[in-house]
């Protein structure tokens, strides 16, 4: 497993939802990033006969990240090691940087999965919860794989939040996911995959 390497600078403006939406501290004001157009098939519980897709319950008026349709069983994993030595894996979506402003927004439910935001350089980018319809927990991880902070993000909140310490990547998870497993700041996070070249550039 490759240690989670993350760092970056997405500016000081919030990207869209806390799931999204990193902003200079996960949420500040909406950024100028273009919002991907919602796929007509991505509306409420849409599936395709020709191409097997995951059923995603989404708002017909909001964009949804393309990674929403990848089955959880096919997603890469983020593996967190709690203070007691136990390991906990979370399937995570790894969107292209162009979808960072969409994140986990637009969905009406999340299930047991999360999302990775990776930055090439250390950042203090903040996130907000615009159009994110459920609470999330976000772990902020430095370049050595150490969790520097875990924040609870409230659904629909436009307050931008982020850690005081620089981080390289953020891993969004269902609200309470980290706490229920005893994972705290100071614990370790690893990725079981290499960061795509599209995110390294």
Describe the protein's architecture and organization.
- The chain starts with a strand and ends with a helix.
- It has a single domain, classed as Protein of unknown function DUF192 (Jelly Rolls).
- It is globular and about 40 Å long.
- The chain is mainly beta.
- The longest helix has 4 residues.
- The strands form 2 sheets. It has an 8-stranded mixed beta sheet with strand order 1-10-3-4-5-9-7-8, with no helix packed on it. Strands 2-6 form a two-stranded antiparallel ribbon.
SSE blueprint and pairings:
Layout: E1 2-3, E2 22-23, E3 77-81, E4 87-93, E5 114-123, E6 126-127, E7 136-141, E8 147-153, E9 167-174, H1 177-180, E10 188-191, H2 197-200
Parallel strand pairs: 4-5
Antiparallel strand pairs: 1-10, 2-6, 3-4, 3-10, 5-9, 7-8, 7-9
The dominant shape is globular
Q: What is the CATH topology classification name?
A: Jelly Rolls
Strand order of the largest sheet: 1-10-3-4-5-9-7-8
Uncertain stretches? 1-17, 23-53
CATH superfamily membership = Protein of unknown function DUF192
Terminal CA distance reads 22 Å
SS elements, strand count: 10
Structural class: mainly beta
Supply the CATH class: Mainly Beta
Radius of gyration: 15 Å
Descriptive key words:
single chain, 201 residues, Jelly Rolls, eight-stranded mixed beta sheet, two-stranded antiparallel ribbon, 2 helices, 4% helix, disordered N terminus
């Amino acid at each position: 497993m490759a240690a989670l390497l993350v760092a970056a600078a997405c500016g000081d403006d919030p990207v869209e939802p806390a799931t999204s939406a990193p902003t200079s501290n996960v949420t500040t004001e909406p950024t100028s990033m273009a919002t991907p157009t919602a796929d007509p098939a991505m509306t409420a519980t849409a599936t395709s006969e020709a191409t097997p897709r995951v059923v995603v319950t989404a708002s017909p008026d909001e964009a949804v990240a393309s990674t929403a349709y990848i089955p959880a069983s096919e997603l890469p994993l983020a593996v967190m090691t709690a203070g007691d030595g136990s390991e906990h894996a979370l399937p995570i979506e790894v969107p292209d940087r162009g979808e960072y402003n969409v994140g986990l927004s637009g969905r009406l439910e999340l299930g047991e999965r999360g999302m990775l935001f990776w930055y090439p350089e250390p950042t203090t980018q903040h996130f907000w919860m615009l159009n994110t319809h459920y609470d999330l927990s976000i772990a902020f991880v430095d370049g050595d794989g150490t969790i520097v902070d875990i924040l609870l993000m409230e659904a629909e909140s436009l307050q931008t939040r982020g850690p005081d310490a620089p981080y390289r990547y953020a891993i969004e998870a269902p609200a309470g996911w980290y706490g229920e497993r005893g994972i705290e700041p100071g614990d370790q996070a690893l990725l079981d995959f290499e960061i795509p070249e599209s995110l390294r550039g």
